[in-house]
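Sequence in, structure out. Go.
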Amino acid sequence: MISLKLQFTIILAALLLLIIVIRGVRSGQLQLKHSLLWLFLGTMNLLFALFPSVTLYFTRLIGIELPVNAIFLTSIVVAYLLILQLSINGSINELKKRMLAQKLSILEEEVRELKQQVEKIRKL
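Output:
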């Protein structure tokens, strides 16, 4: 079983996480699509701490010896998913940045050509 002290600590941490994420979404600092995994993590930890029988069932189901290890495993898996999500977003943003830089370069060249044409027309 989970000790009462650890149970209380996990409940506080999960509630704090949920409050921070919800405030971040409401204030616009965090997009909802990026907050879903954080909300899942906070909710799972809260459920595990509030209902130790669920934790015991989950622990036995996946073959982990201690219930607290199941809670940590859940947190680690979600953390890995968050890292993967951030890596994917970073790659997508890098590709978009490169495409924008190329388009900007093309537009700058077109502006230069138009300026040259205007100068030629003015000289006539």
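Check: The CA atoms of residues 34 and 98 lie 23 Å apart. The mean pLDDT is 90.
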